[in-house]
Amino acid sequence: MLGAPGSGKGTQAARLAEKYEIPHISTGDLLRKNSHLPDYIIKKMATGAMLEDSDVIGLVKERLERDDAKKGWVLDGFPRTISQAKLLETLIHGIKIAIVYLEIPDQKIMERLVNRRTCKECGHIYNLINQPPQKHRICDICGGELILRSDDTEEVVSNRLKVYHEMTAPLIDHYKSQGSLITIDCTKGQGPDAVEQLIEISLSRFC
Ligand code: ADP
Question: Would residue 66 show up in a list of annotated catalytic residues for this protein?
Answer without folding.
Answer: no
